[in-house]
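Anyone else keep sequences and structure tokens together like this?

Example one:
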Amino acid sequence: MSFYKKILLLFFFATVGSSCSKPINTTAELIAIDSLLDTQIERLSKQKPGLTKEVGVDKTVESSVLEMKNSASWARELDVFRKINLVNSPVYVGKYKVEDHQPDINSNLAILSLSTDQQLPIRSLKLFFQGSHDKVRKLEATYFESNSIFSSTRNLTMEFQYFQGELMLSRYRIEGGQKMIFGDSVVYVVEGIIDYD
């Protein structure tokens, strides 16, 4: 199967899976993912930074520089990270082990972590922050999705840095694999590097 066909199939099934899921009403948020993303999209659309995006499928990697014209472009680009908000579903209340202000041995940051041994869509989530939760420097989550057509696991990462006094998204990464029920497995990596210069 060609590189571009794999990419098209990958995002087709991801879109089908997303469109079949029902919206979830959140009552008490553990981590305000939607608010974080909305703020970042607003700031990115104002700053208009450059975006270098690399897409790798199996052993083939393609790189491109994208012009993000408005907030809708950024919203589409970062939409997959809204999956993390599933941790706030009332259905999953009490199903995560929550550990807060754990020291990160590799930095001066603290960690808020959510983990579960149950078969939930978000299997783990780590928020690396400096002082308080709103000063997030990195976000890591594992998202699992399965239906009658495919099963998929994605490791989602977002990194943040300060630019002109505001906390801004600097890098994101989507790494995972997708197994078709009657087909091959696909391993892929999508990485975006945001340039404010």
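And example two:
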Amino acid sequence: MSDLQFQKFELGPIGTNAFLIWEENGTDAVLIDAPPDAKSTIEPMLKLRGLQLSALWLTHGHWDHMAGAAELTSGDMAGLGHKDDLELFENPECMSSFAMPGMDFQPIQVTQWVSNGDKLDLFGRVVDVLHVPGHCPGNVAFHIPSKGWCFVGDAIFAGSIGRIFTGVISPHWKNRSRKNSILSRDLPLFIRGTDRIQLSKVKW
């Protein structure tokens, strides 16, 4: 099995992280999150590396993570998200009150709804889906055990827990089995504002 590669991009008006993942010598790539105008950066990178975007995995439905999805998804490409953020994916105009002025909101069609405990395939590697609501009802993290990587969206920020926008701290965080899925493993997290951070460095 060839080595797994990724590249981080800070995109859109507030520098939201997106991650392009591919296998060395492979032809397909997966993008985690699609900030506004992601296409203008991601497509040249795909061409440079001889890759085709085969799937888009969305950590949650906030505009800065999904506003570039509509222009990137096409054909049979898989678009993954959690159904608790369906309203944000399909009616993004509802975020106009807290988005950047002049945003052009385009709804996106999620082709595969994921839930806590689901297993995804990433070029022959298992990816665990962790439902970590609080920042958004449908916030999910993608954990790749074979690499020790965990892409968490805005569930955790650099140096702190993620900002709570929707409701209160979810009971999912208080459920020991789900909490342990992230908190008991000192994983490298790929989050806003840094390449990676160990959980031991996070202030809870």
